Structure prediction request, 281 residues.
Amino acid sequence: MPEQNFDLHCHSNVSDGMLPPAELVARAAAQGVTVLSLTDHDDVAGLEAARAAALEHGIQLVNGVEISVTWGSHTLHIVGLNIDPAHPVLSTGLEGIRHGRGERAAKMAAQLDKAGIKDSLQGAYQHAGNKNLIGRMHFARYLVAQGIVKDVRTVFKKYLVKGKPGYVSHQWASLAEAVGWIVASGGQAVIAHPGRYQMGSGKMHELLEEFKNLGGVGIEVVTGSHTPEQYPQYANLAQKFGLLSSRGSDFHAPGEGYRDIGRLPALPELCTPIWHDWAAC
Prediction:
């Protein structure tokens, strides 16, 4: 039996990806993915189409979501794997988060307007397949399309992040809420791309301890935004805190991120994979 290729973090145009769910699954299959989780931001509307495509392409789809969280002064993302997308606790929680995205988008546009970048709200909405999931990536694509920056990576160095034009702080779900919604729906809560969070080791340890005490079980070790030097770093933290290790590209669009879907190195040997006791894997 060939080795399984797990990619447990990616996005369709239901949130801030560019490909419709069926096209995303087709690309994953072509890239050799055998087990895929679609983890759109704060929405599960793409899972039905993704599942139909997964059956067509002979790969396994894991129901997923990525929930936006405010933890102290930090914005975090918590991935939920093996969730029940129809569970009322999860559905109600995600609906509340989506409601706040439009308000934040208007404030972001106002900040960009002050910086001399006009019509960004209308421009961002033109890049959003799901108008209820308007987010920073849609503004980023507008800035690239206008020739203001050369690519999306550069946008997040010059705009839309703390201390730069277009950044707006926002109160997302609490860590307890996000983990609680995932657990209530029968899923596994995983901290997404921890290497992206600007916090020292003490704060990271505090986060991991609180996360585990709330019922969180995993951490992304190999992900598109981690460097090879960070893989063993987060593998060691997973081991220290008794967390399972996950692997996902965080793919959004061809040529846009650091890793294409399915094109990731293996987890370090010391890791216990999040999928180690999944019956079908």
